[in-house]
Amino acid sequence: MQLADKCYVENSWLRGNTVLEKDCVISQLELKDVTVPSMVLHGVALKRENGEKRYIVRAYGIKDNPKKTLEERGSFLAGDLQSFINLNNLKTEDIWESEDHSLWKAKLYPVTDSQKKGVSWALLLHRMSSEKSRRSEGRRMEGSETLFSGRILPDGRCICIGSMGRKTGKPDPL
Q: pLDDT for 49-93, tens place per residue?
């Protein structure tokens, strides 16, 4: 395990060949054999009524302001919200359901059945936010059954709105 300068880790377990690059913030996660670029990763465990666990891993840049909007050139991970849309051939309606185009209202975090998958998605979002993103990864994300299914609320809590059914376009119940 390697930690660069200015990393903050809370309630997490780092194992194996995990590398945290400079300025990482890690919360509520178990990481094994991954390299995390400068970013925030925050794990949220969700429980269904039947006791089954699901996970969301929120990813954002350490300087991102969740109140900033697309129109205000709000930052997001390795770029800004507009560059994220442009780099991945997305439309605003792919990410937002309302006229509020802030990071708080963005549908960016899929609900997954394991924390490991949630971390993989979060790291994919980071790659998609930079020009280094590989096109095949973006296509994989577009075809996912769980694309864009979590929300950041104004008080920092994350709420799950269900996995987005790609065929119907309606949220599937959790």
A: 788 889 999 999 999 998 999 999 999 999 999 999 999 889 999
pLDDT in tens, 3-29: 889 999 999 999 999 999 999 999 999
Rounded Cα distance between 50 and 68, Å, is 37
Closest CA to 67 of 174, 170, 153: 153
- The H or E element containing residue 86 is helix 81-87
What Å distances lie between residue 66 and 42, 49, 69, 70, CA to CA?
A: 14, 30, 8, 11
- The answer to whether 57 and 42 are in contact (CB under 8 A) is yes
Structure token pair of residue 72: 């205000």
DSSP for 103-115, please give it. Answer: GGG------BSSH
Residue 166 reports pLDDT greater than 50: no
What the block records as the tokens of 130 is 């930079």
Give the DSSP letter string of 15-32: ETT-EE-TT-EEES-EEE
Show the tokens assigned to 156.
């920092």
